[in-house]
Specification:
heterodimer; A: 18 strands; B: 364 residues; 16 helices
Chain lengths: 311, 364
């Protein structure tokens, strides 16, 4: 059963009670929250995802977001993220309840799922080849991802690329794409039909909203993708889109620095990264206009198909 | 058969019990074992008994991922110990390691599936400053502590504030004693050091003698105030005892050493709870011998009520209505044993009313 098939009232009731069982990529979640705005965002962003009855016995991560039980709820309401009783973060203001849930879920995965090499990167796929997008915050990575998945690319992941340690393929985790500040309006104008949830003000990062993952990406969330490109995107205010080959050695270093569990996996992490770098083409990519950027990526995907056909 | 709420120690005692587990039991087992930091060791136990095939496919990665982490940590600890050995060579201070890092150095079964996040060193008090300076020069820096805690450490504690490596993030705790100077029980550090011996396979690195290592864990079990991983510490003790018991004369030496160090009471409790949770084999003569160190029946009943709750995994599925009270009691008792009242009262007042408003966990 899909989440959207659950009537809103029933969703709110289950979420506030024992929680709802939800599957995202390879992970099952038990999410519990008494906060109505969390129920609303979940219903709208996770509509295509599979839910099961609360009696489903096993979940990988049991998480909750709720106001702490103290007097502050009357003054300045706050919210806590809890992973099975453990609270890894300090409380945030109630308005940030939904972003806190998303960040908490990413934290759960990145600190536990060592069956993968986990890279702090986005992943998109087209014609059977995946592009891994690696960039520091503020480089326009999520904006580019949003533009691509709204133009037919499959969303693999917005910020956590899971690489299978045996096959080197990418396992999708197509959770909502986090957009910040100006990107929110930019994506709304780029694709007026795209659904973004209600904006939260976040003192540290400005405003945040989440883009609903495309239906097709969620439908194919158990289908791994072969890495084809590793791309280091950078948004600039003015200028033409530029795609330039990047040295594999440099790309390797950058990749390892952005892997969450590189040091935890020891020698195997080195092997997985080496294999990845060898089979993928590495590029620096600079863009200022999203439609041009998408055109460059489409060209890249098309030329990969032609070269494959030519072989 | 009714399966008790606490599943982790049940599976250690009887891995075959997992054959009857429902998916819901596995869910609870994984969650409790994660909270107790025993996922990797539990996996090892299931493999050892050949019952790991019983793990349902959906639950398996939790065990495997925890094992990957524990194994890499061991490699890292060995590498750090080699670096430390070179670093301290010039100072001519013997490198005596304690707890998890010692189990790794000596390659004991207690190192199996044991996540080890820091290295514990035992250094003579008069050499503390030199060792700390040498470590700071090599990029190990004190972790940030509020001013009150800094002062408290310097004045009353038996160790320096933890040092963390600037780049590798490994943490070292430098101790000059096992318990604070203010504690009721004393584990004389000079005695411990005098019996510490170099590890055969690891020249330049020394560990405590077998009996001292066990008495150390037994004392920690009842003295460590935080003890977030009580069950893990008890599981360490279980493995240490099982391995040591294969040496002839071990039990009589342990009893003699406990008597000499006036630690028969803590040893009595530790063996009692090791037996309760892990079924640790303790010979009858040893139990008879320690009976003279037991408290009154009334005290023992109370202590059982406290410690069987406090040592269970800190997960809501193995708590009852009395668990919060028992945890508070264990916390107070640990503090009571560590400090005389004239220090204890102001310290607890500070921790209760001032510290919570100064320290908060790291931001999201």
């Amino acid at each position: 059963m899909k989440l959207l098939q659950l009537p809103p009232k029933e969703l709110r009731r289950q979420l506030a009670g024992q929680g709802i069982w939800l599957r995202t990529g390879p992970f099952s979640l038990m999410v519990q929250s008494r906060i109505p705005s969390v129920a609303e965002s979940l219903a709208k962003l996770y509509g295509q995802f599979e839910v099961r009855s609360v009696h489903e016995a096993f979940a990988d991560f049991h998480v909750s977001v709720n106001p702490p039980a103290n007097l502050r709820r009357w003054l300045r309401p706050q919210v806590n993220f809890s992973f099975d009783g453990v609270k890894p973060f300090k409380p945030l203001s109630l308005e940030q309840a939904y972003p806190m849930l998303e960040q908490g879920l990413s934290w759960c995965v990145s600190t536990h799922a060592h069956q993968y090499l986990m890279v702090h990167a986005a992943g998109v796929e087209n014609n059977g080849r995946a592009a891994i997008l690696v960039a520091p915050p503020g480089f326009g990575k999520s904006t580019l991802v949003a533009g691509l998945v709204l133009s037919g690319w499959r969303l693999l992941s917005d910020e956590l690329t899971l690489i299978d340690r045996k096959t080197g393929w990418i396992h999708p985790l197509p959770r909502p794409v986090r957009l910040k500040n100006e990107s929110i309006a930019l994506i709304r104008s780029y694709s007026p039909d795209a659904f973004l949830n209600r904006t939260s003000r976040d003192t540290a990062k400005g405003t945040v909203a989440y883009l609903r993952p495309p239906k097709e990406s969620v439908r194919r969330q158990h289908e791994p993708a072969q890495p084809g490109w590793i791309i280091f995107p950078k948004w600039v205010a003015d200028g033409e889109s530029q795609l330039l080959p990047r040295s594999k050695q440099q790309s390797f270093q950058f990749l390892t620095q952005h892997a969450f569990n590189y040091s935890h996996l020891g020698a195997e992490a080195f092997r997985v990264c080496t294999d990845l770098i060898q089979q993928a083409d590495c590029y620096d990519f600079q863009y200022s206009r999203l439609d041009q950027a998408v055109a460059v990526f489409d060209y890249l995907a098309a030329s990969a198909v032609t070269s494959k056909a030519g072989n | 058969m009714r399966i008790p709420a606490e599943l982790v120690s049940l599976v250690f005692r009887n891995p075959d019990a997992t054959h009857r587990f429902s998916l819901g039991d596995w869910d609870r087992l994984v969650r409790q074992a994660r909270q107790a930091d025993l996922l990797a060791r539990l996996y090892g136990r299931l493999q050892q008994d050949g019952v790991d095939a019983a793990i349902p496919a959906v639950a398996r990665w939790h065990f495997e991922a925890a094992t990957v982490l524990a194994e890499t940590q061991k490699i890292e600890i060995r590498r750090e110990l080699k670096l430390l050995r070179e670093l301290l060579k010039g100072l001519d201070v013997p490198l005596v390691v304690l707890k998890g890092s010692a189990y790794v150095a000596a390659d004991l079964t207690a190192a199996s599936g044991r996540p080890i996040d820091d290295i514990d060193l035992l250094v003579p008090q008069e050499r503390m400053d030199e060792v700390e300076s040498a470590l700071e020069l090599a990029d190990w820096h004190p972790v940030d502590l509020p001013e009150y805690d800094q002062r408290y450490y310097r004045r009353w504690r038996h160790d320096a504030p933890s040092l963390q490596h600037l780049r590798r993030a490994t943490v070292i705790n430098v101790h000059h004693a096992i318990l604070p100077d203010t504690a009721r029980f004393r584990l004389d550090a000079a005695w411990l050091r005098s019996r510490a011996a170099e590890v055969p396979g690891f020249p330049g690195v020394a560990v405590l003698s077998t009996e001292d290592r066990i008495l150390h864990v037994a004392t920690l079990l009842l003295h460590d105030d935080g003890l977030p991983h009580g069950l893990r510490t008890l599981s360490d003790l279980d493995l240490l005892l099982r391995q040591a018991a294969t040496e002839s004369d071990f039990w009589s030496q342990l009893l003699a050493r406990a008597k000499k160090m006036e630690l028969s009471r803590p040893l009595f409790y530790a063996l009692r709870y090791a037996l309760h949770f892990f079924g640790t084999p303790v010979p009858n003569e040893v139990r008879d011998h320690l009976a003279s160190a037991a408290p009154s029946m009334a005290t023992l009943k109370l202590m059982d009520g406290i410690y069987t709750r406090m040592l269970a995994p800190n997960h809501h599925s193995c708590m009852d209505a009395l668990t919060p009270l028992a945890r508070h009691a264990a916390y107070l008792r640990a503090h009571w044993l560590r400090r005389p009242p004239r220090l204890l009262v102001p310290h607890l007042l500070h921790k209760a009313f001032i510290s919570p408003y100064q320290r908060e966990p790291k931001p999201a």
